Amino acid sequence: MSLRTVLQLVVHGEATSRADIARRTGLARSTVSQQVELLIGSGLVEEVVTSASVRGRPPRLLRVRAAAGLLVAVDVDVPATRVAVADLAGNTLAVGVVDRPVDDGPEAVLAGVVDQVRRSVAGLDAPLLQVVVGLPGPVDFVHGYAVRPPIMPGWDGHPVGERLRAALGVPVLVDNDVNLMAVGEADVAGVDPPLLFVRIGAGIGSGLVTGPFQVHRGADGAAGDIGHVRTSARSEVLCRCGKTGCLEATASLRAIAADLGIPEVRGADREHGQRTLAARVAAGDPVAVHRIRQAAAEIGDVVAGLVHFFNPRTLVLGGALSSLRDEVLAGVRASVYENALPLATRKLVITTSQLDGEAVLRGAVALAVQEVFSPDGLSGLLARGGGRVSPGS
Amino acid sequence: MSLRTVLQLVVHGEATSRADIARRTGLARSTVSQQVELLIGSGLVEEVVTSASVRGRPPRLLRVRAAAGLLVAVDVDVPATRVAVADLAGNTLAVGVVDRPVDDGPEAVLAGVVDQVRRSVAGLDAPLLQVVVGLPGPVDFVHGYAVRPPIMPGWDGHPVGERLRAALGVPVLVDNDVNLMAVGEADVAGVDPPLLFVRIGAGIGSGLVTGPFQVHRGADGAAGDIGHVRTSARSEVLCRCGKTGCLEATASLRAIAADLGIPEVRGADREHGQRTLAARVAAGDPVAVHRIRQAAAEIGDVVAGLVHFFNPRTLVLGGALSSLRDEVLAGVRASVYENALPLATRKLVITTSQLDGEAVLRGAVALAVQEVFSPDGLSGLLARGGGRVSPGS
Questions:
Q1: With a CB-CB cutoff of 8 Å, which residues 193-232 of chain A face chain B?
Q2: Who contacts A21 (Cβ-Cβ below 8 Å, separation ≥6)?
Q3: What is the pTM of this model?
Q4: Mind telling me how many Å the CA of B178 is from chain A's nearest CA?
Q5: Which of residues 31-90 of B touch A (CB under 8 A)?
Q6: Edge-to-edge, what's the strand order for the sheet holding A314-318?
């Protein structure tokens, strides 16, 4: 148990030397050294000599051995699926594409994922330790499958996690893709939680990070599903859900493009409409700019209520192409500061995503790192001999 | 460290015998027995002989020794403050009243609280271990004070936690009262999280429980502050915050009573208006019933959006007198099922509070139990010799 404690201190950067560990745990120096040697022996931790000190013994820095294991992140998206391989420090080593739309169904897409993962890790000299999958719909995180996802025909209840675990022989986590974007933003950009991440794209969704690496997923994995919250503008536009007044029906990029007569392109080039819209905004087309600002005000109106309810430290807007995002950011800021009480907004930071299209994969890798070094993950790792696990296991 | 693990298993009811502990921890029976003896020696745990078994050795049940320590819960409310003393199992032993309105300011109220606590625990033969205070406003939970509370003149930033800690010599937690009501509901009624607790009274507020004993307090302690969310009815009634369209301005019991010409009584009998309103509803006054249902529909309209966003398993309505609450429940249910998507509501339980006026004190006691037996709390307890701590320390 104290071996695990020592490892966690190193993983979370709370201790970078044997002296740190002794101070943090109250363990004797000899005990600490014994445990550090064990961890180095297991291959999970390494001790490197730094040259920072001018005199005396050069300090030795304890850190996770990045090469001790591999992590895989899978971003199942509507046009295609991407698969990233990362090392144990979260550095991306390679990204591959499974060229199958989500409409092909889970059997075909997951078969492609398994192939791609096997090819990606084949040449690498480290064991695969964890897979994290993002799906574009509500996810039962505990059981690892999508629950009534509106844009994933055939995926409802399909055991994604179980299927990949059986094929690849490693632990698999399945999460909603916007949740992973929020995790990526919190981890990579280092924004302070509580974080509310709002994705504005063909639809509108959000992800809630309540504390360090704590995602609020809700009772059915549906938390953050704000596309069907009714705006106070009470529009009569019919939403695809069959109701009127939903945020998504008037403020999503799909709705805006339709209003402006920009044709929707389905399939692989689904960003065509967004690019056309962004070009018109960049060219200063007043009708397009006005429509974007109107949508941003509606989003801000709903978000102002959520700011009262959730009291985030940081609100991050993501999803849209960046040229559109500046207009959206201005409109949402104006509306939130207009509609929310000063107490809830005086320290609130409202900003745009730093990760763009990489957010899902980066968040999935971050979650994989956390999972591998969680108490349960660590117990498994140490039991199996850490980084000395053979790639075939 | 494993002593703490063993104690936590017993506290959380996950192990009720030495055999349970051995099974859960993988420790040898002899090690477990040694640790159990240590805990019994510390006075925190006791082993009682039950008569449930017909033959063989009668089973011995391990449990927390309720008499090993005292907990104090403080409910600072507008007309007066109540102070409850409980044992370590969370059973209330006594409740006293500090007859000072919150308007008297923190110095006077807290002096009364200190007096009341000292009198309450004086005759009891166990050490006071933890105090938990509920305040009617946003609270900085980490530092233990109210932040710009609208109905607590003079309390903004006053160091409530520090003050009581210095006077009583024990750890003190300070929280928002609606958060404590939510904790009480989750703990006492055993409702499954995620839980959204909505209090409907003179104002409207809410508390969010994300998981077992995990309260989401937000960046400024203001999470759940839904009174100033704008309703989609877009009323032009001016709210006390200076804006229009706020939920509280049209759907709070104060707003309803004012509409119906029921005079507001300030001070101690602030429930007078609620009782008059409840009497009219109970007598079947159609105007009063209509007005309540209209308010409930507005509350439900806002809550439907929060249901999408937070995806709670349970929605509990509390705060109002129970006769009013039935009308409110029916109205909120109708509105939530009308306005939220079926996916978010198919498993949602919508119910009324089981604790009524006791919710804050019960929640504060529950939080105190959790805190005492948290890893940090336990370390302190064991270091001080558990229940053998002297009352004067």
A1: 194, 206, 208, 210, 214, 216-226, 228-232
A2: A6, A9, A10, A15, A27, A32, A35, A36, A62
A3: 0.87
A4: 13
A5: none
A6: A214-215, A204-211, A195-200, A314-318, A349-352
**B176 at the A interface (CB within 8 A)?**
no
Q: Which of B1, B148, B219 sits opposite A194 (nearest CB)?
A: B219
Which of A 95-124 lie inside 8 A of B, CB atoms? none
Q: How confident is the model at residue B385 (pLDDT cuts 50, 70, 90)?
A: low
Q: Do B302 and A302 touch (CB under 8 A)?
A: no
From the list B210, B228, B348, which residue is nearest A308 (CB)?
A: B228
CA distance A302 to A247: 8
DSSP letters for A92-120: EEEEEEE---GGG-HHHHHHHHHHHHHHH
Question: Nearest Cβ partner of A310 from B221, B223, B301?
Answer: B223
Instruction: Copy the structure tokens of residue B179.
Output: 């958060």
Judged by CB atoms closer than 8 Å, whether chains meet at B344 and A224 is answered as: no
* pLDDT tens digits, one per residue of B13-38: 888 889 888 888 778 888 888 888 88
Rounded to 5°, the CA angle B379-B383-B389 comes to: 115
From residue A352, give the alpha-carbon distance in Å to each of A332, A333, A392, B361.
Answer: 11, 11, 42, 42
State how far the Cα of A199 lies from the Cα of A214, in Å rounded to an integer. Answer: 19
Q: Is A179's Cβ below 8 Å from some Cβ in B?
A: no
Encoded tokens for B48: 């009682």
Q: Which long-range contacts (CB under 8 A, 24 or more apart) does B25-30 make?
A: B27/B2
Question: pLDDT (tens digit, 9 = 90+) per residue, B129-163?
Answer: 999 999 999 999 999 999 988 889 999 999 999 99
Tell me which residues of chain A, numbers 229 to 258, contact chain B at a CB-CB cutoff of 8 Å. 229-232, 234, 241, 245
Contacts of residue B338 in chain A, CB cutoff 8 Å? Answer: none
Query: DSSP string spanning A321-332?
Result: -HHHHHHHHHHH
pLDDT by 10s per residue, chain A, length 393: 467 778 888 887 888 889 888 888 777 888 888 888 888 887 888 988 876 656 666 778 898 899 999 999 999 998 899 999 999 989 999 999 999 999 999 999 999 999 999 999 998 989 999 999 999 999 999 999 999 888 899 999 999 999 999 999 999 999 999 999 999 999 877 788 999 999 998 889 999 999 887 999 999 889 999 998 888 777 788 888 888 889 999 999 889 999 999 887 665 566 788 889 889 988 999 999 999 999 999 999 999 999 999 999 999 999 876 678 888 999 999 999 998 888 889 899 999 998 878 999 999 999 999 898 887 777 777 776 654 433 333
Q: At which residue do the structure tokens 């006390």 appear?
A: B240
Rounded CA-CA distance A83/A117 in Å is 7
Residues 325 through 344 of chain A touching chain B, CB cutoff 8 Å:
339-341, 343-344
Asked if B348 contacts B310 with a C-beta cutoff of 8 angstroms, the reply is: no
The separation between CA B94 and the C-alpha centre of its own chain, rounded to angstroms, equals: 18
Which chain B residues contact residue A303 at CB under 8 A?
A: none
Is A216 within 8 Å of B216 when comparing Cβ atoms? yes
Asked whether A326 and A363 are in contact (CB, 8 A), the reply is: no
Tell me the three state secondary structure of residue A333: helix
Work out how many CB contacts closer than 8 A connect A with B. Answer: 140
